[in-house]
Design goal:
11 strands; mainly beta; 1 helix
């Protein structure tokens, strides 16, 4: 009788532990997102270094033509605490083996251009999510999303795609893992249009890039986008 009671007690304990354990989330692989598209993003950044915090707001429009080895981005960057706004353009031309960044500062009469070589073919803009793990369904600004997460060498990224169509990105949150500087960026995709109908002129850097080389702004002032 005592043995039966002990066995029953052990079974009850095992059942209780099984019921208490969280149900594992069924993994769902992130589908292949379009690699040729136009997109507008609103980016809010907070950079915390010690007791100092610096915020920036960015409106970013990108034209990504991966199949033709080129992309172009226009950004308006606002630093509220400094009452400062400036503009940045990025022209990445793998077909030409060069990346150009144009800076147009409100305190400078002329824009400047930084250029650096690139090699090979243009990688997928979503390559960073190749090893992403499915977190589960959530709601973001009233929209149902499927959420994925991945950690790369310098930051953790949470990425949400539309639950109705997993090929449409909705948001990304990027958090640095650098203990000396905490950087959090929330990227909201306000529009996303898969397309290959681009004008080549969109990807041509201005003539200033033939003659000048700029010094990029301090990294704690601007957090780069996903692509």
């Amino acid at each position: 009788m005592a043995a039966r009671i002990l066995a029953f007690g052990a079974l009850a304990l095992i059942l209780a532990l099984a019921l208490a354990a969280p149900t594992p989330i069924a993994q769902k692989q992130l589908p292949a997102l379009p690699v040729d598209f136009s997109v507008t993003m609103n980016i809010k950044n907070i950079v915390q270094t010690g007791n100092t915090s610096q915020a920036s707001n960015i409106v970013s429009t990108s034209f990504v033509w991966t199949s033709n080895n080129m992309s172009a981005t226009n950004q308006t960057i606002t630093l509220p605490s400094l009452s400062m706004t400036y503009y940045m353009q990025d022209f990445t031309r793998y077909d030409l083996g060069m990346k150009y960044e144009v800076f147009n500062y409100s305190w400078s009469p002329t824009p400047t251009c930084d250029h650096d070589p690139v090699t090979g073919t243009m990688p997928s803009p979503w390559a960073v999510f190749a090893a992403a793990t499915y977190v589960g369904p959530q709601t973001f600004q009233g929209q149902a999303v499927d959420v994925y997460q991945v950690t790369v060498p310098d930051e953790s990224i949470t990425f949400g795609v539309s639950a109705a169509d997993n090929t449409i990105p909705v948001f990304a949150q990027m958090t640095s893992v650098d203990p000396t500087q905490n950087v959090t960026s929330l990227i909201t995709f306000s529009s996303f249009t898969p397309t290959t109908s681009f004008s080549l002129s969109v990807f041509n850097p201005p003539s200033i890039c033939n003659t000048t080389k700029a010094v990029a702004p301090a990294t704690n002032m601007v957090r780069r986008r996903l692509f």
